[in-house]
Amino acid sequence: MEEPFVRCPNNPLISAHDLPYQANAVFNAGAADMGDHVLLLIRVESCSGRSHLIVARSKDGITDWEFEDRALLHPYENYPYEAYGVEDCRITWMEDMDVWGLAYTAYSPHGPAVALATTKDFKKVKRMGLVFPPNDKNAALFPRKFNGLYAMLHRPSTGGGSIWLSYSPDLTFWGKAELVLPTRSGPWWDGMRVGAGLPPIETKKGWLLIYHGVKELAGSPIYRLGGAMLDLKQPHKLLARTRRWLLSPQEPYERFGDAGNVVFACGGFVRDGELWVYYGSADSSVCLAKADMNAVHEFLVEEAAET
C-alpha cells in the first residue's frame, strides 16, 4: 500500500529567503485553519542559532504568505527557561476558554522543556511558563476536557523516548501520567524514539494522532511520520498504530538541509474531508502534504491489522 499523502507541488512553501529579514532557516510550523485564511506559527532559526516563532498567513494556505513584522514568541531575558530559544509550537483551539492554546519547547542551558501560552488574536500571548521540566518536548494539547481534566501529549527524553499523556485541572499542574505510544525499538522505523506531531484530531473512530518516528541509520537519524488512533473517552488508551510510515523523506528538499532525511510535522487540520499536514523538511523549509481522511483511516486499520 502506497503512502496516503500527496506532496504539494509548490513545496517547499516557505524558505528562509521568503522572510522579511535575514535568518538561517524556517521549519516545524504550527497551523490553524482560520476560515478565510491559514495561519502558521513558524519556527525561525536566526543567524545567532536561537529560534523564535513568527506568524505567517495565506488565503489559500499555499501561496502569498504574509509575515508579521515581529515574532509572537521570542527568547527574552525575563524568561530564563527560554534563554536558548522557543521551538516547535503546536496550536490547539481551546473552546471552553475561547483561546488558542500554544504548546511549545522552551530551550535553555538546562535543556528542552514544555511550556504553554494562550492567545486570542496571535498578536499578543499570555505565557503560562514551564509545565514540564527538562528534558521534555513535543507537547500537544487536546481541544477538550476528559472528565473535567485537560489532556496533553508530551515526550520525556528519558525512559526510552516514548509518548506520554498527562492530565490537568487548570493547565498548570499536571499529573496522572500514562504511557500512550512506546518506541518499538530494534530495526523499526520508529524504534529509536517517537513524538507527537499534530495536535490530536477527533474522529468518529477515535483521536487520530500523526506522530514522528526516528530510526538511527548508519549513525544518522531519519525522521518519518506515522499514525495512531487513541480512545475517544480515555485518550491515554492506544487503539491502533500503523506498522509502516505515512510519509518519509524522499524529495531532495527533505533529504538535504541543516538536518537531512527529516520530515517533522507540528501543524495541520482537516478541511473538506482532507487532512492538511504542514511539516518541516530537513530543518530548512516548510512544506505541505495532503491526504484523504478516509484513506488515512483505511491505511491505519489495514496496517494495524497486519502481523
Structure in words:
The structure is a single chain. Helix content is 6%, strand content 49%. The chain has two helices and 22 strands. It has helices at residues 252-255, 293-305, and strands spanning 6-7, 14-15, 25-33, 38-45, 51-58, 66-67, 85-94, 99-108, 111-119, 126-132, 136-141, 150-156, 163-168, 175-181, 193-196, 201-202, 207-217, 220-230, 238-241, 263-271, 274-281, 285-292. A hairpin with a 6-residue loop joins strand 12 and strand 13 (163-168). The longest helix has 13 residues, at 293-305. 48% of the residues are buried. The mean pLDDT is 95.
List the helices and strands and how they pair.
Elements: E1 6-7, E2 14-15, E3 25-33, E4 38-45, E5 51-58, E6 66-67, E7 85-94, E8 99-108, E9 111-119, E10 126-132, E11 136-141, E12 150-156, E13 163-168, E14 175-181, E15 193-196, E16 201-202, E17 207-217, E18 220-230, E19 238-241, H1 252-255, E20 263-271, E21 274-281, E22 285-292, H2 293-305
Antiparallel strand pairs: 1-22, 2-22, 3-4, 4-5, 5-6, 7-8, 8-9, 9-10, 11-12, 12-13, 13-14, 15-17, 16-17, 17-18, 18-19, 20-21, 21-22
Which descriptors would you attach to this protein?
5-stranded antiparallel beta sheet; globular; Tachylectin-2, Chain A; mainly beta; 6% helix; 307 residues; 2 helices; 22 strands
Overall average pLDDT: 95
CATH third-level topology: Tachylectin-2, Chain A
Runs in which pLDDT lies below 50 for 5 or more consecutive residues are none
Provide the structure class: mainly beta
Short recap of the structure:
With 307 residues, the chain is mainly β.
